[in-house]
Amino acid sequence: MRNHKKIFLALIGIAAVLSACDDGKIYEESIHVEREGGSVRLTGQIEGNHDWASGYSIVLAGFSSDSEYAKTAKGITTNEDGSMDIVLSGIPSEVTSIEICAINRLRKRIARFYSFDYTEQEDTIRIDAGNVDASMFNSIQTNVFDRTCINCHGGSTTAAAGLYLTDGKSYDALVNVPADKSPDQMFFVTPGNSEESFLHLTLNTDISADWGMDHIDMITSSDLLKLIDDWIDNGAKK
User: For a FRET experiment, which of 36, 87, 95, 102 has its CA 20 to 30 Å from that of 187?
Assistant: First the structure.
């Protein structure tokens, strides 16, 4: 009986403490979470993003106006039909453009496929990118041939040395095609072997010094020269 009395008194004590803490009011708990950075949701169709050499990534990324290095990035994944639906969150305030692009291991932009100006908003920004060709060869076409080469190689009425590097003609004119100026009839592009490709020799050595147009200084970006070699070594896929 004495033990039962002790238990009874202990329960009364606990009840007293609880009633003292409870003033009878019901409080609604409200927690405000500050969102860090903006958000973009991008949809569309993409092709060629799976055929890149190692060391590169195809991403949805944010860049500031004064840097070629991504401030934030997310790898692009696709459904079986090539469609994409990607949300990039936590975008820093200094980002001024959102891009579908190729970056290297240092997160440096190597090639841009789609871009739009970005200003942070409270709501998620929704963008439809349409159809995007993110193939490795297309990055060379747009970033090298179109910008540097086609003025002489097909952009006018004729093509120097009969070599057309315009969109739609360049691939068939280069891959497994003997170079007229090669004494050994080396292919312009030998898939899997950049050092045995005449295109590599033309852009990286003084072999063209007596052609009337020295090509060694035409492409000054080491990233683009490496991109071409990596494309060839990766099988020169279209």
Answer: 102
Give me the helices (H) in 31-159, please.
Answer: 136-140
pLDDT tens across the length of the chain (238 residues): 445 444 444 444 544 444 444 444 443 444 444 457 899 999 999 999 999 999 999 999 999 999 999 999 999 999 999 999 999 999 999 999 999 999 999 999 999 999 999 999 999 999 999 999 999 999 999 999 999 999 889 887 688 888 999 999 999 999 999 998 888 889 999 999 999 999 999 999 988 888 878 888 888 899 999 999 999 999 999 9
- Is 38-134 assigned to CATH 1.10.3470? no
The CA-atom distances, in angstroms, between 96 and each of 63, 67, 123, 151, 189 are 6, 10, 17, 32, 38
By CB atoms closer than 10 A (0-12, 13-18, 19+), residue 104 is middle
- Indicate the domain borders of the chain: 38-134, 137-233
Kindly list the distances between the CA atom of residue 108 and the CA atoms of 67, 111, 213, in Å, as whole numbers in the listed order: 9, 9, 31
